[in-house]
Write a structure and sequence with these properties.
Elements (H helix, E strand, L loop, with lengths): L3 E6 L3 H4 L6 H16 L3 E7 L9 H5 L16 H7 L4 E5 L5 H8 L6 E7 L1 H15 L4 E10 L3 H13 L3 E3 L11
Parallel strand pairs: 1-2, 1-4, 2-3, 4-5, 5-6
């Protein structure tokens, strides 16, 4: 079992340049792929997963933008990211912001020392997964590489980083003054 895990959160086309894409999300793709290639440990991914009828769900009523519909192009993990993973990566399809299945998988690792999260969106799924993992594994170091994350807005990205710090999640590579990925 790995002592260090890199959790790549929702690096899907719809969050990069699709239905909910942002300039900041587009700008982290190469950094995320590089971190995956350079990471010394196990890499896992999450994939936001919705179905036809999304607009009738609680989330769809609050965020009425169909996205990450299973088996669509927007649901797919970005090619550069999936190629960096080299096909051996475990992928957790999740129906909500945080993945209990991911946290349970990490909890099953008896020698786990750290989990680093990168990906999208800092202020929704990255923070949700960081806090679920911290709840399941309070003695494991949980960190977020801010330079490999992007939020819905630069302001909400920064707010999420501050909230995670308050919950004892380490935030690394935070750029002074930008509140978002370096660009």
């Amino acid at each position: 079992m790995a002592k260090h895990v890199l959790a790549v959160i929702d690096m899907q086309n719809d969050f990069i340049d699709g239905a909910l894409g942002t300039k900041e999300a587009e700008e982290i793709v190469d950094k995320v792929a590089a971190q995956i290639r350079d990471f010394d440990g196990e890499v896992v991914c999450t994939r936001d997963t919705h179905f036809e009828g999304y607009l009738g769900t609680q989330e769809g009523k609050r965020l009425p933008v169909p996205h990450c519909i299973k088996d669509t192009e927007g649901w797919q993990i970005r090619t550069q990211v999936s190629q960096a993973c080299a096909g051996e990566t475990k992928v957790f399809d999740k129906l909500t912001f945080g993945s209990v299945e991911l946290a349970e998988y990490l909890k099953s690792m008896s020698d786990l020392e750290s989990v680093t999260l990168i990906g999208l969106c800092t202020d929704i799924c990255v923070i949700s997964n960081a806090l679920v993992i911290k709840a399941f594994l309070p003695e494991v170091t949980v960190r977020v590489n801010a330079d490999c994350c992007a939020g819905v807005t630069p302001e909400s990205h920064k707010n999420a980083l501050e909230a995670m710090k308050m919950c004892q999640v380490e935030v690394t590579n935070e750029k002074e003054g930008t509140g978002s990925c370096s660009y």
